[in-house]
Specification:
The protein has 208 residues and is mainly alpha-helical. Helix content is 70%, strand content 0%. It contains nine helices and no strands. The protein is elongated.
């Protein structure tokens, strides 16, 4: 049996308690808060009031603070959710559509991810400085997700074979730097159409 470490006043401190899973209703509230916060951050930026987020999620502000003691905790949860949703979308789209269409649709989903990330940009910079390992792990999942879509489209012969996920993501990163105008999303979708036209140019069907 391992001994307990003495506390500040010489008394033994109890071992840390394991995190208990949330009740079903508490988990639903947490999930709804993250979803609503992501939408509002994307639309109005990080300065969206926590009271407004709680109201839209149909919970009290006390419930929000129980799940997310600070705005930074909420931002980190939203970022994690956006990354996981984007990666899950790659799997879902690959099952639903032909490879090139799945890739195109995934890139449109990426625009929504960019919108949320832009809305949280300032807070993400602060969080990155204090939790770079988390962001490296989360962001590293995205290239792997899109690489599967790219590989499938290349194998089908619907896009050119001399590109990989990093090429696609670098091209998409230009959308992040577009001015935040009223037609930003529409312009982003037009750029994705142009990008897909370029990816399809020179594609060759595999020889049987």
């Amino acid at each position: 049996m391992s001994a307990r470490r003495p506390g500040r006043h010489g008394k033994a401190t109890p071992p840390p308690q394991a995190t208990r899973p949330l009740r079903a209703d508490a988990q639903r509230n947490r999930d709804r808060l993250v979803e609503v916060a992501g939408l509002l951050f994307a639309q109005h930026g990080i300065d969206t009031s926590l009271e407004q987020i709680a109201e839209r999620a149909r919970v009290g502000i006390g419930t929000l603070y129980r799940h997310f003691p600070t705005r930074e905790h909420l931002v980190e949860a939203v970022y994690r959710h956006e990354v996981e949703a984007l990666c899950q979308a790659a799997e879902d789209l690959a099952r639903k559509f032909p490879p090139d269409k799945a890739l195109a649709e995934w890139m449109r989903r990426f625009v929504d991810y960019i919108a949320a990330k832009r809305g949280m940009a300032n807070s993400l910079k602060l969080l990155l400085a204090g939790n770079s390992e988390f962001f490296a792990e989360a962001s590293g999942k995205i290239p792997a997700a899109v690489q599967g879509l790219v590989d499938a489209a290349i194998a089908q012969g619907s896009i050119r074979s001399d590109i990989d996920s990093s090429d696609v993501l670098h091209a998409l990163s230009g959308i992040y730097n577009l001015p935040q105008t009223h037609d930003w999303r529409e312009r982003s979708r037009r750029l994705i159409t142009l990008l897909m036209d370029g990816l399809r140019s020179g594609a060759r069907k595999p020889e049987l």
